[in-house]
Amino acid sequence: MKQTDSTLPGRAIRAAALLATLGLALPAAAQQAPPVAPPAAAVPQAAPAGPLSLMQAVEYALQNNLNVRLSQLQAELNEATLRQSRLQQLPTAQANASQTWNYGTNVDPLTYTFQSQTTRANNFSASAGLNIFSGFQVRNTIRRNGLDYQAALLDIDQARNDLSLNVASAYLQYLLGEELLRASQLRIDTDQQQIERTQKLLRAGAVAESNLLDAQAQLASDEVSVVTAQNQRDLARLQVAQLLNLDQARTSSLQLQVPTLPDPDEMPAMDADADGTYQIAQGTQPQVKAADLRVQSAVRGVEVARGAYYPRLTFGASIFSGYSSARIARKLTGDSTIVPSGFIYQVTPNGPQAVPGVFAGILQPRFETLSEGFGSQVKNNIGKQLSFNLIVPILNGWQARTNVQRSVIGVKQAELRAEQTRLTLRQTIQQAYADALAAQRRYASNKRQVEALTTAYRNAEIRFNNGLLNGTDFNQAKNNLAGAESSMIQAKYEYLFRRKVLDFYQGKPLDL
What we know:
Blueprint lengths: L7 H18 L28 H11 L1 H22 L4 E11 L2 E3 L6 E3 L2 E15 L3 H67 L5 H35 L4 H5 L21 H11 L1 H21 L5 E13 L3 E21 L2 E21 L2 H7 L2 E9 L7 H67 L5 H35 L7
Antiparallel strand pairs: 1-4, 2-3, 4-5, 5-8, 6-7
């Protein structure tokens, strides 16, 4: 027979699509107390033995999901950036050493004389510098990077909350598939019993053969509903396994608990309206806190850019020495020579007269010219230097002013993003609250419809067994009841999911 939208397969497909849409469309959930995050590169933990509860599935996913681990690595990068900016306050120091060979005509690096020979030269130096003042740029950079690091930590919480709700969505889709499957299997049992009764009535001549054919067609239709529910359940289980980052072997063996969930009319009334939930979530949501921190970071960015207007004062100290193979030294040999310096005169009545054969001389020691040793040159050539450097910016192509203007615009963008985050949060909570109320009302009306259609179906079954109702009308009554039951199950799980979302925004644990 022709399948209509009110039959169980159509309802089941629509229910699965609806819950899938709910899971994908949800933003972040409310922040819980931030747990200690595991190392980002940690090896995935083994899945717990036995069927997983929702809480166990969420905890396992938080330890092994790749998106959460990527957020942790990003936070580690921000921490390294913060640590480096703090180290910028320390002095800088470096040591240099070089060795060169000069050929042909060259200038000796130590004597600064022109020479035409091959020389080997060594230079050694060590220097240190300290930034005394740079327009408070270092201090403001540290504060800005600190705010970025705090925002990155909140991004981890945001990723964990998003993952938690995605796991809950897939988990509830699995439970929906299980409940639809149970309902479909019960209808198949009823169909088989009906076929047996119809066959007996047909052999007794109480009903026409068309009634048996209609019953068999209904059984085939309900078997399609079973396959549809099985596919929905298996796809939901696969989605849970993917969120848990399970391999193929553990995906095949994954089992989920199927708890008995209360109906919406058995649950306590929602204790908060949309505005009350928003006020709670606004103070606990990690994306709101992260957006506010990024506004503060952008303000610090303006201060960093304005630091380029100020003069810069630095202090430097250095020590250096060197060696040149062309440098020579004079060394006493121990011998000496007398160098004539003139005649010796004596006073006579006729005036001073030179004494014949006698000369005056100077005793001059002898020296040996040698290349000065490496150690003595390094020791004798040591030089030291202290310096203060002041740089006053005058004109640099308006780069500083342009950077300040960009930073100011960045602050405005961050403020708008923070406002947009709050607006999105408010709208999401309002939508979840409205959807929960609508699902609750729809469940109540569907429940009344199921009760009425159940009575009508029982009456139709009695008339059909007595030959007073044809198979087509009887199957129509049965399909109407199946459609109403499917709509009631759909409304139940939509309400449960929206209720859990609102509870999570209020800081309550995510559990069934």
